[in-house]
Specification:
Elements lengths: L2 H6 L10 H19 L7 H12 L3 E2 H8 L3 H13 L3 E5 L7 E5 L1 H22 L4 H18 L11
Antiparallel strand pairs: 1-3, 2-3
């Protein structure tokens, strides 16, 4: 619906026809499935994503790490602090700029990423299971298109997918 049509039409748009509502609801469903499949680990999807990013790129500074997972500076620092308290990451102050902290995944962090992998994949597959196999890739491509095209409007920018 265009902005002009929305202004001229007093009809109520049901929640089930609002993309924002559906995206938020799907995210809630994903979190529930992730926690169900990964309950033994007490790790959130964001924490797992951060650990995965650090495994791929050890030593990212906190700002770059936030951009990898689409989190603002405050939330990135909070998640890193929680992971650090569990011994899954460690921070080191930059030798070049004392205000910058680099984050490294620990051996325990690598172990948990590996141990959780099959359960995380099960959660992803469970989420996509209602779609026919032939539509899953299209759905993911459409999601990526929307995220990339609207990335600048997020509370925190994310590095290009």
């Amino acid at each position: 619906m265009t902005r002009k049509a929305a202004k001229s039409t007093p009809a109520f748009v049901p929640l089930a026809l609002r993309p924002g509502f559906l995206v938020r609801r799907l995210n809630q469903i994903h979190y529930a499935m992730f926690f169900d499949e990964c309950k033994a680990f007490d790790i959130t999807p964001v924490q797992y994503g951060m650990l995965t990013a650090l495994q791929a790129s050890p030593g990212l500074d906190q700002k770059a790490l936030g951009m990898e997972v689409g989190l603002d500076r405050t939330n990135t620092a909070d998640v890193v602090k929680r992971l650090e308290a569990r011994g899954l990451v460690r921070r080191e102050q930059s030798a070049i700029d004392g205000r910058v902290k680099h984050v490294f995944i620990t051996a325990d962090g690598k172990k948990i990423v590996k141990a959780m992998y099959a359960d995380m994949i099960a959660a992803q597959e469970r989420l996509l299971a209602p779609l026919p196999e032939t539509e899953r890739q299209t759905f993911l491509e459409l999601l990526r298109t929307l995220v990339e095209a609207n990335n600048e409007f997020g509370r925190a920018s994310m590095r290009a997918l």
